[in-house]
Amino acid sequence: MLDYNPCKRCTSTQALKMTYFYNKPGPSLGSALPKPGAPSEVLKEQEHAKASRKRKMLDEPSGHLSKKLVF
Questions:
Q1: Over the range 5-17, which residues count as b (16 or more CB within 10 Å of their CB) and which as e?
Q2: What are 16-68's pLDDT values in tens digits?
Q3: Model's pTM, two decimal places?
Q4: How many Å is the maximal CA-CA distance in the chain?
Q5: Are the beta carbons of 21 and 15 closer than 8 angstroms?
């Protein structure tokens, strides 16, 4: 299929009949696809993910101690 010599190359019809282009299993039915989440649910999930990342950053021990600033 990727031959440099155009005389030895297969045609597009022959290429499309090759096993590489067969898609098994077939596509899912529309009723079997997951439903998109409501926008409010998506926002809640994003906020929850952000909060959990913050908690992880705060819970991780840092290698240095905080110093008190004296003015």
A1: eeeeeeeeeeeee
A2: 888 887 777 777 888 877 777 657 777 778 787 777 776 565 556 655 667 77
A3: 0.30
A4: 83
A5: yes
Reading the block at residue 65, the tokens are 């101690």
Q: Look at residue 4 in the predicted model and tell me its pLDDT.
A: 81
Asked if residues 12 and 29 have their Cβ atoms less than 8 Å apart, the reply is no
Q: What is the pLDDT of residue 44?
A: 79
31, amino acid identity:
S
DSSP per-residue string spanning 45-61: HHHHHHHHHHHHHHHSP
Contacts 24+ apart (CB under 8 A), 27-32: none
List all residues 6 or more positions away from 18 whose beta carbon is below 8 Å from its beta carbon. Answer: 1, 10
